[in-house]
# Entry
Amino acid sequence: METWEAGAPGVLRLPSGRLVRGRGLRRPPPPGPSPAFGVYLLGKPPPQVPWPALWLRWPDFWLPSDSGAARAAFTEALDRAGTGRVELACAGGRGRTGTALACLAVLDGIPPLDAVAYVREHYDRHAVETPWQRRYVARGGWRPPRG
# Structure
């Protein structure tokens, strides 16, 4: 299993022990291995990368344009994080990235109302920048239906 090193820059440990990396694309990638999979949270297509990746259309300071695509991206990222290095990134690495990491935390067992605080404590204290991003995590309309 080739995952991130705990404690490496931008790496968040989820409750299950899975490690995911968040980062801002405006800065160079941290030193170390490349991701095995990436989810890029941008209003326009991301730059090409040499690993499998998804683009989730997500304008800066807002919410994903498609809840179904967000659900699929978050679910795939969480699944792949069990066995590989998964990266989630937006331009700055805080708002959209923090929101997506909080959604992963909810899928991994953190109560929705606690997920933003979890990400702020373990990833970046400024993560999840807007009130509507906080509500998006808490309300969970992006989560898979129960059944």
In short: DSSP finds four helices and five strands in the chain. The mean pLDDT is 94. Residues 13-139 form a domain with the Protein-Tyrosine Phosphatase; Chain A fold (CATH 3.90.190.10).
